[in-house]
TrEMBL record:
<protein>
    <recommendedName>
        <fullName>Proline--tRNA ligase</fullName>
        <ecNumber>6.1.1.15</ecNumber>
    </recommendedName>
</protein>
<dbReference type="Pfam" id="PF03129">
    <property type="entry name" value="HGTP_anticodon"/>
</dbReference>
<dbReference type="InterPro" id="IPR002316">
    <property type="entry name" value="Pro-tRNA-ligase_IIa"/>
</dbReference>
<dbReference type="GO" id="GO:0005524">
    <property type="term" value="F:ATP binding"/>
</dbReference>
<dbReference type="GO" id="GO:0140096">
    <property type="term" value="F:catalytic activity, acting on a protein"/>
</dbReference>
<dbReference type="Pfam" id="PF04073">
    <property type="entry name" value="tRNA_edit"/>
</dbReference>
<dbReference type="GO" id="GO:0005829">
    <property type="term" value="C:cytosol"/>
</dbReference>
<dbReference type="GO" id="GO:0004827">
    <property type="term" value="F:proline-tRNA ligase activity"/>
</dbReference>
<dbReference type="InterPro" id="IPR002314">
    <property type="entry name" value="aa-tRNA-synt_IIb"/>
</dbReference>
<dbReference type="GO" id="GO:0006433">
    <property type="term" value="P:prolyl-tRNA aminoacylation"/>
</dbReference>
<dbReference type="InterPro" id="IPR033730">
    <property type="entry name" value="ProRS_core_prok"/>
</dbReference>
<keyword id="KW-0067">ATP-binding</keyword>
<dbReference type="Pfam" id="PF00587">
    <property type="entry name" value="tRNA-synt_2b"/>
</dbReference>
<keyword id="KW-0436">Ligase</keyword>
<dbReference type="InterPro" id="IPR050062">
    <property type="entry name" value="Pro-tRNA_synthetase"/>
</dbReference>
<dbReference type="GO" id="GO:0016740">
    <property type="term" value="F:transferase activity"/>
</dbReference>
<keyword id="KW-0963">Cytoplasm</keyword>
Length: 569
């Protein structure tokens, strides 16, 4: 077999899964974020795909395969040709027609259904595919966890009503739970942002790992879980008592030369950060909006976007800041703006009084600023990023952070794509209605890497049986020994005949090399034919737990089912 194991890899392989997949001879890089899957990796990907297929088929989804090469016209219909961003890999054919390599397939599946399904009688319908996707990641890294070419399962459901969408969403949600459980993963389903896909309700499925890129917010008292981008802050239902505005001193301007950051201002004025009112100007669908948060909090771009029901939201550039406030960044405030703009404030700002804000003038701040007396807020909302120790929005418990790797995402798309592409059906009354959609993705190649992130030790990978490239690793210590060769060949034939997938190491290598490779590759159960072969005795070792012992060849045959039950530890 082509299993080119390595003892060391370069420093660029920072993640455990990246290092181990390179060292175990599973993958080789062709270009940044583009990998060849060697035999061991291909077998694992096939195992993962089969688990996914079984659970998709179990809930009535039908497998199809759509083209990776997409005409630009479909993406122009939805507007995503222009809005998806630089991750879109585009090209032209010989006739100079625009195409792209599909990063996802909402447009293609919607085009298929608008041409093939036109009556409520054909609904609901659930379709899925397992296919290579392409995204031009700015910084492809971490091996298969963030690549430019990757395997993905994407499913789409179509409905005549919201009730069947809700049912399909729950069906997919539970199918995902079964998939990740079968693959031996510790995971959480968390509330999340829908990003470029769009839609309303959605959940990410996160594999818990200290090496994960995503920060998860978990409650220590209930099952609330959310991505930090969307995690809600509890405890702001009622206002805290504060002095009436008349009892607070009038606004006073003070000089704060070169103090444009929270740290600089608090040090110069000798105050706590929570006394500050941070003012940030955002460009929201082309309109400037002033967002206010407490000085010890951070504004959350995703929450601002959702609070204003916007399509695009980002920090305004310096020219807009100067125009609206009359001052450079770091000195903005809600009092005395040069241009009238909408003001949205976090709930915590409602409880501020006698606060410090920028004076909309370089090197100056205002003291004694109080909302509602000195300026008016157009809208209060939860627009800050949660912090550890914040109250849970569900039960009031305490929120804590964890790290995770996203391996799946489920969305309720609604009619976003069907309306844009005029994908309609006739309802029971004969009226034309837009198809209602759901979308559900699992990163297959990313999932294989995430399994390794949770299942490895200092010696290598410790595969769960469901994802392992082989179930049994059979090692003949010395194939030149007649008894060892005979017994090893005999066992190999028996194991294969019993339906087990066996990797048979009959190489002319030292025993130490074979054992190191075995630990590195991580196949769940190792059987070694060595010095006791003449007595028909072999050694077994469970990779995960390290448990080992000796059995006769006959005992091994009888004990195999029990040993395989123990391999996941």
């Amino acid at each position: 077999m082509l299993i080119p194991t390595l003892r060391k890899v370069g420093a660029e392989a920072e993640m455990a899964s990246h290092r181990l997949m390179l060292r175990a001879g599973m993958i080789r890089q062709l270009a940044a974020g583009v990998y060849t899957y060697l035999p061991l990796a291909h077998r694992t990907l096939y195992k993962v795909e089969q688990v996914v297929r079984e659970e998709m088929n179990r809930i009535g989804a039908q497998e199809i395969l759509m083209p990776a090469l997409n005409p630009s016209e479909l993406w122009r219909e939805t507007g995503r040709w222009d809005t998806y961003g630089p991750e879109l890999i585009t090209l032209q054919d010989r006739h100079e027609r625009d195409f792209l390599l599909g990063p996802t397939h909402e447009e293609v599946i919607t085009d298929l259904l608008r041409n093939e399904v036109n009556s409520y009688k054909r609904l609901p319908m659930s379709l899925y595919q397992i296919q290579t996707k392409y995204r031009d990641e700015r910084r492809p890294r971490s091996g298969l966890l963030r690549g430019r070419e990757f395997l993905m399962k994407d499913a789409y459901t179509f409905h005549a009503d919201r009730e069947t969408l809700d049912q399909a969403y729950q069906g997919m949600y539970h199918a995902y739970e079964r998939i990740f459980t079968r693959l031996g993963l510790d995971f959480r389903a968390v509330e999340a942002d829908s990003g470029a896909i769009g839609g309303t309700e959605n959940h990410e499925f996160m594999v818990l790992a200290d090496s994960g890129e995503d920060t998860l917010t978990l409650c220590d008292s209930c099952d609330y879980a959310a991505n930090i981008e969307t995690a809600r802050v509890g405890g702001h239902e009622g206002e805290k008592s504060r002095p009436v505005a008349e009892e607070i001193s009038t606004v006073e301007k003070v000089s704060t030369p070169k103090a444009s950051t929270i740290e600089q201002v608090t040090k110069m004025l000798d105050i706590s950060p929570h006394r500050l009112m941070k003012s940030l100007l955002f460009d929201v669908d082309g309109e400037p909006v002033l967002v206010l948060v407490r000085g010890d909090h951070e504004a959350n771009e995703v929450k601002v976007k959702h609070a204003l029901d916007a399509d695009q939201c980002e920090l305004a550039d310096e020219a807009v800041v100067q125009r609206v406030t009359g001052a450079p960044s770091g000195f903005a405030g809600p009092v005395g703006l040069k241009e009238k703009v909408r003001i949205i404030a976090d709930h915590a700002v409602r409880d501020l009084f006698d606060a410090v804000t920028g004076a909309n003038e370089a090197d100056a701040h205002l003291l004694h600023v109080t909302p509602e007396r000195d300026f008016q807020v157009d809208h209060f909302a939860d627009v800050r990023t949660v912090q550890e120790g914040d109250p849970c929005p569900h039960c009031g418990g305490t929120l804590r952070f964890s790290r995770g790797i996203e391996v799946g995402h489920v969305f309720k798309l609604g009619t976003k794509y069907s309306e844009a592409m005029q994908a309609t059906f006739l309802d029971r009354e004969g009226k034309e209605q837009p198809l209602i959609m759901g979308c559900y993705g699992i990163g297959i190649s990313r999932l294989a890497a995430a399994i390794i992130e949770q299942h490895h030790d200092d010696n290598g990978i410790t595969w769960p049986l469901t994802a392992a490239p082989f179930a049994v690793h059979l090692i003949a210590v010395n194939m030149k020994d007649e008894n060892q060769a005979r017994l090893a060949e005999q066992l190999y034939g028996q194991l294969v005949q019993n339906g087990l997938e066996v990797l048979f190491d009959d190489r002319q290598e030292r025993a130490g090399v074979k054992f190191k490779d075995s630990d590195l590759i991580g196949i769940p159960l190792r059987i070694t034919v060595g010095s006791k072969a003449a007595e028909e005795v072999v050694e077994y070792k469970i990779r995960r737990s390290g448990e080992s012992g000796h059995l006769s060849a006959q005992e091994l045959s009888n004990q195999l089912p029990e040993l395989l039950k123990q391999v996941d530890g």
